[in-house]
Design brief:
The complex is a heterodimer of chains A (about 110) and B (about 200). With about 110 residues, chain A is mainly α. Chain A has a domain of about 35 residues. In chain A, about 65% of the residues lie in helices and about 0% in strands. In chain A, helix 3 packs across helix 4. Chain B has 2 domains: about 100 residues, Orthogonal Bundle (Rna Polymerase Sigma Factor, Chain: A); about 90 residues, Arc Repressor Mutant, subunit A, CATH 1.10.10. Chain B contains 10 helices and no strands. The longest helix of chain B has 23 residues. The radius of gyration of chain B is 19 Å and the shape is globular. The chains are: A mainly alpha (about 110), B mainly alpha (about 200). At the A-B interface, helix 1 and helix 2 of A face helix 2, helix 3, helix 5, helix 6 and helix 8 of B.
């Protein structure tokens, strides 16, 4: 038999597809819903434990507060680390000496 | 949200929705997958409608069970379903052979498409002859021919269903078609193909 005859027969068979009966569809859907209920009932309730960073952030009053604290920390360390000459350059002034503990001799002098 | 067989939602997305408790997803998947698996099983089981329905229902049940563990992108839902149905059909064919039974029923009668009674009868005869010839093919050739030429799967999809290479699929379908031609050549007259003899 010729190939095109076989192709015609196969095409005809593809067109004549048996359709599922209502009863079969009902059985399949009943299975689906029963399985779905069992799976939902079996599914464990997941309680995710917060991570270390989350707990730390909560301790400081939340993420934004922790971010602000970190920014201040970084700025403080940077300013503290900078060489005083760099500070002079930034401020445009020259401070030769700063007397952080002015003498009190003048106040103590009698007379 | 309601889905139907023609909605844009993919089968894989429907599987996830079903696993999350969506009832409409179950209906949409049934509408999409069940007819294909039933038709395939019927061809594979020589037209035995009752056996084909059992295979289709069992395939769908396994689909529902696997839904919570479904991994998107790994395999297509229909490919997976065809593979399960193939294995179930093979099991049943082996069981039938062990019992020495041959379950071969008449092919479904073609629907009335406005043809003459003679034409409809001839189509029905051709379908019955094809079903009989398909039943004579070795299992792997029958699977390949049905999946390629009746179910319309591509060769890579068939390779995934049958878990073989694409070249092996091409070889099986070619040999299957040649075997079908040989099996049907003796019935050319009854099938209304008398002119084939002259044409070669």
């Amino acid at each position: 038999m010729q190939d095109d005859r076989i192709d015609d027969l196969l095409t005809l068979a593809a067109r004549e597809r048996p359709l599922p009966s209502e009863a079969l569809i009902d059985r399949v859907l009943a299975d689906a819903l029963r399985q779905q209920q069992q799976q939902v009932a079996k599914a464990p309730v997941r309680r995710t434990r917060p991570g270390l960073l989350s707990r730390l952030a909560a301790g400081f009053g939340g993420g934004p507060a922790l971010a602000g604290l970190c920014s201040a920390l970084i700025l403080g360390v940077t300013v503290g680390y900078l060489d005083p000459t760099s500070l002079d350059y930034l401020t445009g002034t020259t401070i030769d000496a700063v007397d952080l503990f002015p003498t009190v001799d003048a106040m103590l002098t009698e007379g | 949200m309601a889905f139907d067989a023609d909605s844009d939602t993919s089968d894989e997305a429907l599987m996830v929705l079903y696993a999350n408790g969506d009832r409409h997803a179950a209906l949409a998947l049934t509408q999409r997958v069940l007819p294909r698996i039933l038709a395939y099983a019927a061809r594979m089981l020589g037209g035995d409608r009752a056996e084909a329905e059992d295979v289709a229902q069992e395939t769908m049940l396994r689909l529902w069970r696997v839904a919570p563990d479904w991994r998107r992108g790994e395999t297509k839902v229909t490919t997976w379903a065809y593979r399960v149905a193939t294995n179930l059909c093979i099991d049943r064919q082996r069981s039938v052979r062990r019992r020495g039974q041959v379950a071969l029923e008449a092919a479904p009668e073609p629907e009335d498409s406005g043809q003459s009674a003679d034409a409809r009868l001839q189509e029905a005869a051709r379908l019955r002859a094809l079903e009989s010839a398909l039943a004579e093919l070795p299992d792997r050739q029958r699977q390949a021919v049905v999946l390629r030429h009746i179910e319309g799967l591509t060769n890579p999809e068939i390779a995934a269903v049958m878990e073989i290479g694409v070249e092996a699929v091409e070889s099986l379908t070619a040999r299957g078609k040649r075997a079908l031609a040989a099996l049907l050549s003796g019935q050319r007259g009854a099938l209304g193909y008398e002119d084939d003899r002259d044409a070669g």
